[in-house]
Automatic annotation (TrEMBL):
Residues 138-269 form the AAA+ ATPase domain. Belongs to the DnaA family. The keyword DNA-binding applies. Residues 351-420 form the Chromosomal replication initiator DnaA C-terminal domain. Keywords: ATP-binding, Cytoplasm, DNA replication, DNA-binding, Lipid-binding, Nucleotide-binding. Oligomerizes as a right-handed, spiral filament on DNA at oriC. It comes from Coprococcus hominis (ex Liu et al. 2022). This is Chromosomal replication initiator protein DnaA. One of its GO terms (cellular component) is plasma membrane. Plays an essential role in the initiation and regulation of chromosomal replication. ATP-DnaA binds to the origin of replication (oriC) to initiate formation of the DNA replication initiation complex once per cell cycle. Binds the DnaA box (a 9 base pair repeat at the origin) and separates the double-stranded (ds)DNA. Forms a right-handed helical filament on oriC DNA; dsDNA binds to the exterior of the filament while single-stranded (ss)DNA is stabiized in the filament's interior.
Length: 445
């Protein structure tokens, strides 16, 4: 009604015209930003000619854009029998397979194989909505974040699959962010930014995975955001994933970071027990695993709790034993097989010693040196990072942290910690190193 009245008030169409030509149009279907209208059969194609000639379709699309407050709406007006043909674009199996390869997708990461539970319900529903109508402002960009192995890549690729299954001519491209960065760097170096732009700015849907690794110089970030803006301006769908929410991606400049929050960032949580069981059962069924009873699945679901990838890993390991030995797995056997994985899973408390050992191992500086007063750059660096992590992951105060490092006073500790804080802000590679150390310390954080 709003649209119809705009046609009269804004565009000066007479009530008779609106009533005769526009009102009888039937909203036939909505695909992404395309609205298909069917003309009444009794009016047939003559009506379409008339509507086009008088540019009523132009008026209509302007009014719709205004009412929906979306500038990239398109409309198609046709007789219903034609719409039956064009709007539901049949995608053949061959076309789909070819498109998957072109788009860089794993064949198995589809909605069909994704198990939905409490922990990922919202993310799943949002992804479905985006898959159904790519490019809507509300979810552009779609930003998915969550810990490693929780299904980000799987979900984002599901959207891509869905779009390819339902749209013949959509160009969809998936790229891990490090590959994307490399391509930008190469393009700039070889003066081939034109080719780069041709490749990335002509897609309808762009998926960039693990955006936290999108680090680099000003010019790299700039090129990325030019791409981002170009696509966004045209209402093309952008889908991003990261292990953390936008504001915590310290390696990106603020003006860039804030753009990721244009759409709603969507959080994927670690799966709860029911979801873990459902994933395991689904996998058993898909792979036709035999000799693995429910109580073994329960044992896995109870003990491997943080990460779907590890959950799958545990099940695979068990299944190998079950198949090779053609034996039924008992709980004791399962316990034994999964020994390594599960001891890693139990929550370890992070102590200064654990931190120093981990830093020592990662940076290849001895524990004694870290605790000493040596000032060589490598050693001082390892010590600073250790202090920083002690502050972050233990409840110890500055003074007792100082004690761990051979009795440094609290102001020394504080200034060391501050140095790390500063450098994290300005040096992406350094921030990354610390991230990796943190992952080693606490694989589930
Ligand atoms: P991320 O990208 O978040 O690190 P992935 O998408 O690679 O995680 O998921 C890790 C593995 O777990 C993949 O094999 C994926 O298929 C599987 N997986 C994750 N979540 C689910 C789920 N809800 N249902 C089925 N499989 C899942
Ligand atoms: Mg991933």
């Amino acid at each position: 009604d709003e649209i119809l009245s705009l046609l009269e008030t804004e565009h000066g169409l007479s009530p008779i015209v609106v009533k005769t030509w526009i009102k009888p149009l039937k909203l036939y279907s909505v695909e992404g930003k395309k609205l298909y209208f069917a003309v009444d059969d009794s009016m047939g194609s003559r009506a379409i000619d008339f509507i086009n000639k008088k540019m009523y379709d132009m008026f209509l699309v302007t009014s719709i854009k205004e009412v929906l407050d979306d500038d990239s709406i398109e409309i198609v007006i046709d007789v219903e029998s034609n719409l039956n043909k064009t709007s539901k674009e049949e995608v053949t199996k061959e076309e789909y397979n070819e498109a998957i390869t072109k788009s860089n997708l794993y064949p198995k990461y589809t909605f069909d194989t994704f198990v939905v539970g409490e922990s990922n319900k919202l993310a799943h529903a949002t992804c479905l909505a985006v898959a159904d109508s790519p490019g809507l402002d509300k979810f552009n960009p779609l930003f998915l974040y969550g810990g490693a192995g929780l299904g980000k890549t799987h979900l984002m690729q599901s959207i891509a699959h869905y779009i390819l299954q339902h749209n013949k001519n959509m160009k969809v491209l998936y790229v891990p962010s490090n590959k994307f960065t490399n391509e930008i760097v190469e393009a700039i170096k070889k003066n081939k930014t034109d080719e780069f732009r041709e490749k990335y700015r002509t897609v309808d849907v762009l998926l960039i995975d693990d955006i936290q690794y999108l680090i680099g110089k000003e010019s790299t970030q700039q090129e990325f955001f030019d791409t981002f803006n170009a696509l966004h301006d045209e209402g093309k769908q952008i889908i991003l994933s990261s292990d953390k929410p936008p504001k915590e991606i310290k390696t990106l400049e603020e003006r860039f970071r804030s753009r990721f929050e244009w759409g709603v960032p969507i959080d994927i949580h670690a799966p709860d027990y029911e979801t873990r069981m459902a994933i395991l059962k689904n996998k058993v069924e898909m792979n036709g695993y035999k000799n693995i009873s429910d109580n073994i699945l329960e044992y896995i679901a109870n003990n491997v709790t943080y990460n779907v990838r590890e959950l799958e890993g545990a099940l695979n390991k068990i299944s190998v034993y079950a198949e090779l030995g053609n034996i039924t797995i008992t709980e004791d056997l399962a316990k034994n097989i999964l020994k390594d994985m599960i001891s890693k899973e139990t929550n370890v408390t992070i102590t200064p010693d654990l931190i120093i050992n981990t830093v020592s191992e990662h940076l290849n500086i001895s524990v004694d040196d870290i605790k000493s007063s040596k000032r060589s750059q490598d050693v001082a660096n390892a010590r600073q990072i250790s202090m920083y992590l002690c502050r972050k992951f233990t409840t110890k105060g500055l003074k007792s942290i100082g004690d761990v490092f051979g009795g440094k006073d609290h102001s020394t500790v504080l200034s060391n910690i501050n140095k790390v804080d500063k450098r994290i802000e300005s040096d992406p590679e350094y921030a990354e190193t610390i991230d990796v150390i943190i992952k080693k310390l606490s694989p589930h954080s």
